[in-house]
Structures are given as C-alpha cells and as structure tokens.
Design a protein that fits this description.
The protein is α/β, with parallel strands linked by helices. About 25% of the residues are buried. It is built from 8 helices and 5 strands, in the order H-H-H-H-E-E-E-H-E-H-H-E-H. It has 2 domains: about 50 residues; about 110 residues, Ribonuclease H-like superfamily/Ribonuclease H (Nucleotidyltransferase, domain 5, 2-Layer Sandwich), CATH 3.30.420.10. Helix 2 crosses helix 4 and helix 3 packs across helix 4. It is elongated, with a radius of gyration of 28 Å. The protein has a 5-stranded mixed beta sheet, with helices on both faces. Strand 2 and strand 3 form a beta hairpin.
C-alpha cells in the first residue's frame, strides 16, 4: 500500500479518535433501539427515539450507519385479499354444509388461495386439500392471481389422485373458482360443486394454509 513501516506502526499505536468512539456508541444505541422494536423500526423512528433520549444524532447519520452495518427493518406485510365474490358468475349451493369429515380419500376436496410475500413481490399459492387425510393433493404458484392459478392446481390434484365421479369440490365464491373455465373443468372431471356462503369463513382454509407445503403432498 506504499506506506512506510514506521508510519504503519505509528498508526497502529495511535489512540482511537473521538469520532470513531462516538460512531461505535451510536451503532450500539441504534442496535438497541432496533432490537427493542422487534426489528421493525427504520431510520426515521430510530433517530426520533434516540433524540428523545438525549442523543444528538440526525436521521441521515442513523440511515448511513444502518446501511453500513446491514441493519434492515422487518416490514410487516399487510393483508392482501384473495377472494373477489363481487361478480355475476354462477355460484354453487353450499353442499358441504360445514361437514369437514370424510370416510375415505377423494370424497371431499376443499380449495383455497393464499399469498406469500417475497423480496421480488407477492406470490400466490392455490391448493387443493383432501378432507380425509388433510393433505395437499394439488397446488400451483404464480405471480398473478388468475383462473389459471387454480386451474393448474386442480389439474395436478386430478392427475395425482384420479378420483371417481361425484367428488365434492368445495371453494369460496371467488371469481377464479366461479369462472366458466374452472366450472367446465369440474364438469369434465365429474365433480360436484359446492361453495361457501358469502361472508362465511371456511375453517379448512386455515388448516390448508398451515399445510401448504410441497413436503406434505402425496
């Protein structure tokens, strides 16, 4: 680095500057506030908290230190609706009637769409669950919540399980499930349609969200 030996040892033995000491202290204080916020606070809130406690530091300095130290706020994801029942498409009666038990595989399937936040944006997951085993028998992921998302999930479930005619297929009243393409596929597979009443939560949906993992697919 073209530095003399004597100059290097002189620098090595030089006491830490006040500026360096102050930066270390600020870094520690920033980390304490950040951890106390459950890693949710960004530089504006952290600088405000420090200033309130008597620390003379600007938001710009806090932002710079956070960037240098790799401190990033953990964004709380907002709820993203997956059901749009405000449409003129035909809907089925609730044939399932909250009876979530089955005597054998491939008697009753329930379907759902959920969303997964990623650094690149939202990903949507459509799943099909067999109420007998509570296993996900078909699923598909995509960047958009279209009818193709649910169509591909149902096609996979049918290919895997090859159910007999008359299987009860239950879903919400979302436009994806009520679409003509999806209903035509159900007719092709000879499934009996069932849909939740408007505003009626379907408890297997919550179970399906817990089970929506490719590791659980049979």
């Amino acid at each position: 680095m073209k530095v003399s030996r004597s100059g290097y040892y002189k620098w090595l033995s030089r006491p830490e500057s006040m500026r360096s000491q102050r930066r270390k202290q600020w870094t520690e204080q920033i980390k304490n506030v950040f951890d106390a916020s459950r890693q949710l606070y960004g530089s504006p809130k952290i600088s405000k908290k420090l200033q309130q406690s008597g620390v003379d530091i600007s938001e710009r300095t806090v932002s710079r230190i956070m960037k240098q130290e790799g401190i990033r706020s953990r964004t709380v994801r907002k709820y993203k609706p997956t059901t749009n029942s405000n449409h003129s498409l035909p809907v089925h009666e609730n044939v399932l009637e909250q009876n979530f038990s089955a005597d054998a595989p491939n008697q009753k399937w329930v379907t759902d769409i959920t969303y997964i936040p990623t650094r690149e944006g939202w990903l949507y997951l459509a799943s099909v669950m067999d109420l007998y085993s509570r296993k996900i028998v078909g699923w598909h992921m995509a960047e958009r919540m279209t009818k193709d998302l649910v169509l591909n999930a149902l096609r996979q479930a049918y290919r895997r399980r090859q159910p007999q005619n008359g299987l009860i297929h239950h879903s919400d009243r979302g436009s994806q499930y009520a679409s003509h393409a999806y209903q035509d596929l159900m007719i092709t597979y000879r499934m009996k349609g069932s849909m939740s009443r408007k505003g009626n939560c379907m408890s297997p949906q919550q179970q399906a969200r817990d089970l929506q993992s490719p590791d659980l697919i049979r």
